[in-house]
Amino acid sequence: MADAQNAAAAPRVTRREDYREPDWLVPEIALDFELDPAATRVRAALKVTRNGGHDRPLVLMGDGLEPLAVRVDGKDAAWTMEGPDLVIALPGAAHRIETEVVIAPERNTQLQGLYASGGILCTQCESEGFRRITFFPDRPDVLTKYRVRMAAEKARYPVLLANGDPVAQGDLADGRHWAEWHDPFPKPSYLFALVAGDLVANRGSFTTMSGREVQLGIWVREPDLAKTDHALHALKLSMAWDEKVYGREYDLDVFNIVAVDDFNFGAMENKGLNVFNSRYILADPDTATDWDYDAVAAVVAHEYFHNWSGNRVTCRDWFQLSLKEGFTVFRDQSFSADQGSAAVKRIEDVRGLRASQFQEDAGPLAHPVRPDSYIEISNFYTATIYNKGAEVIRMMATILGPEKFRAATDIYFDRFDGTAATCEDFVRCMEEAGGVDLAQFRLWYSQAGTPRVSATLAQDGGKARLTLKQTVPPTPGQPEKAPMVLPLKLKLFGRVTGRALCDEQLVLLNRPEQELVFGNLTEPPVLSINRGFSAPVVVETDRTPDQLAFLSAHDDDPFARYEAMQQLMLDTLTAAVRGAPFDHGPVIEAVRNTLADTRLDRAFVADAVLLPSDSFIGDQMDIVDPEAIFRAREALRRELATALAGQWRDAYEANRANRFEYSPAAKGARRIKNVALGYIAASGAADAPALAFRQFEGADNMTDRQAALGTLVNGRSDERAAALAAFYDRYRGNALVLDKWFQTQALSTRDDTAEAVEKLAAHPDFTLANPNRARSVIGAFGVNQRAFHHPSGRGYRFVADQLLALDRINPQTAAKLLPPLGRWRRFDAERAARMRAELERIVATPGLSKDTFEQASKSLD
Ligand code: ARG
Ligand code: ZN
């Protein structure tokens, strides 16, 4: 580890190869909560059974707990503490263990375990939060049946919820009441949940394919009730979709979702009682953008799908996290694709993958989809586990084809139902049903780094020879890489007629180099490769600007079409940044043609005509020059804006109609309109601020209002301040919308944003205690390449200061803000030195959490 002082106290590393079955199992637990924000008494009665012929004691993990009573088979028993854990020597094969602790939810600022959020008591246990509630073998391969009784003051906490089905409830003396819940499905402790609060439900019901009626409830505080219809609708769609596509039915009589304002991530799939960050539940046209609506549906689906991929079949250990997360992301992506345009969904998912996962894979925190070690598991809820993990499942689905893939998932769910499985178990099911050998494919689980493919096509009369080469870059701890299996969909098009010269082929590139020959060519071929983004790799080709422009107009795979345009833009921009000769002409012509093609979906057009982000351009460079990238991108943007001024105006006017509707067509219209507004502003047109301000004031929905605000915030007009003030006044009482106010400013492309965020962090409405608010400023700023990398280094200092302050309150969320600082190797010596200095300051801070220590020390290595 990086720092000598801390090395002595370096936190323990957990290794995958050290996995051992649990010594003791817990078939049943009865929990009794006397709920109170200041002092909640938790009594637990565990039935424990010895697992195998050993004489090791029972170790019950704790985190900050003090045992007030410990009984074995009804009698006070001897126990010791080993660090945070409770150790009890037991003579027999089965015993009844009782423990008692008192915890303080209102002082739990980490938001792990039992905590208070805006007057609601709720839990978050994944990964290791249950041990902050009671002593327990808190590991995912211990599956237990839970019975939960809780009592609380009735006026403050009229609603008492837990996993499973409600059993009984009643009133007590002194204004308290109680409820009992029972979950018949054995589950790991990370899926435990309870909620107590003054909540109301948007109720619905769903009849499963076998005819069982399930009561659905979306629980929120009363004023938010009107914003829950979209989530409830998405839940019903998800339940029907999982039956139709995977044959998976819901299994309890109730399914509840609770929204809370303070939450470390998106949501949590607790059995029968999902707990959500309110930003992924609440939506109405006045406060949520189209992006928010889509995200609500996707996260509701994701957590619901976990009922099978995660809950019925869970993970043996946390190294298998992608078993549930990668698969479930793949499932929610497929669900969303089925609700609207699959092509646009794929484009967005790939854009997200490149922005987060490719960066992660190229930096100091790169790790395999199935990691080998960790210090703090919370640091491994990453784009690699989730999004690359989803790509790995998608590749297997591509290799098997839809029927065999479905047969494989049937085997997987049936065989491993009620157990804690591994990634290896999943792959074996794929092999079995697919009749394929995935031995080499398994490298996707063990090797980190984004493979690179180079493809060159050489024509020779009526034949063409395609040479494919692959390399996988070194990553921390993995200097040498073996060649992987890369499923590449490809096709050739004729440059003269635009016709396909062959059917689409699926090539499994599994050697360092492979050649393919195509015959009977009647015209010069143009290569379309990695269609649909069939493999999560970087492809380098020698295609000319002319060929890319041609594909952007003629490819019959919408993703490939988008990709050709992106590549054309990237080639132009990187040439400009490097100071090489470049020509804006082909980009302008390609954008002109795409805008003019009335057959295309407007949402697709909006995606296709957007320039790659500053940071994606930076990812193409050896050393990132944020200012040069910004200038090159702005120059091309301005040229596109002026050369196509009439078309942007037309696109704006044609899609101006302002009657909110949440449909793919209406979303597409808003999307292209707002992209057009951005270009109109980029042209420097004198009326642009007034146009944006008019849209801002007249909008009947948040998509249009926020887009107009964003356009103004990037500029220097008088309307800017007016819009910011109006937005603040209108939404100051709505935390989720106020997050947008902060975030829009932290994302501003202006050159004074590094200064502006310091003021934002001093604003009375800013707080580190709420993760959404913290992320809206610090998280957003960290991905604003130009602003964060301000040459003065003030951006680095700001993020480090905030991160250290947050680390004392909420280490999990603090550690997530670190990765932008860890990318120092990609920048010039001066910036790199400033970034390293901040990392060193962080690592040297006394009392640093192991979450932040792990991220910072690995980033320095
Ligand atoms: N399982 C949750 C999901 O649906 C996320 C849990 C995140 N936990 C954590 N410790 N970061 O994706
Ligand atoms: Zn998940």
From TrEMBL:
Cofactors (names): Zn(2+)
Chemical reaction(s) catalysed: Release of an N-terminal amino acid, Xaa-|-Yaa- from a peptide, amide or arylamide. Xaa is preferably Ala, but may be most amino acids including Pro (slow action). When a terminal hydrophobic residue is followed by a prolyl residue, the two may be released as an intact Xaa-Pro dipeptide
Domain Aminopeptidase N-like N-terminal: 104-191
CDD domains linked: M1_APN (cd09600)
The keyword Mitochondrion appears for this protein: no
E.C. designation(s): 3.4.11.2
NCBIfam families, A to Z: pepN_proteo
Protein name, per record: Aminopeptidase N
Species for this entry: Sphingomonas canadensis
Gene: pepN
